[in-house]
Write a structure and sequence with these properties.
The chain is an all-alpha fold. The protein is built from 5 helices and 2 strands, in the order H-H-H-E-E-H-H.
Length: about 140
């Protein structure tokens, strides 16, 4: 049985809170945005032992993915998502607090996002090493 893309999207959406996704969902553009991040994740998941080909007509992978593979793809999607925020043309708009109307440092916020992306890259690398190790042990038995 093939794995629907929506299952990987669910793993991703548990990691990311972005209220613009609500608007994208209402306009029908959410799956297009999610798929762009998924494509990036597929390219980066080089150690996957399964075929990550997507049947766009059916909106599913041609292979059946386990939860570990879905988690890795979702983590890689999170990296793609964060990278798009870091490189956004507006360089992340300055945020005003409701009560004090104080402008927070965009540079500080950007530094935190870069650190977050670095942490997510490390997490993704660790997951892929574990995945490769697990599959290597399976092949020995």
């Amino acid at each position: 049985m093939a794995t629907p893309l929506s299952e990987v999207y669910d793993f991703f959406l548990m990691k990311v809170t972005d209220y613009t996704f609500i608007q994208l969902n209402e306009t029908g553009d959410l799956e297009t945005v999610l798929y762009k991040h998924l494509r990036s994740a597929i390219v980066r998941f080089t150690s996957c032992t399964k075929d990550l080909t997507v049947d766009m007509k059916e909106q599913e992978f041609t292979s059946t993915l386990d939860d570990f593979e879905k988690e890795i793809l979702a983590t890689l999607m999170s990296i793609s998502y964060t990278a798009s925020k870091i490189t956004h043309i507006k360089n992340l708009e300055q945020i005003l607090s409701d009560k004090e109307y104080k402008i927070y440092s965009t540079a500080n916020h950007l530094s935190q996002l870069i650190a977050l992306r670095k942490d997510m890259n490390l997490e993704a690398s660790n997951l892929m090493v574990s995945y490769s190790f697990r599959n290597g042990l399976d092949e020995l038995t």
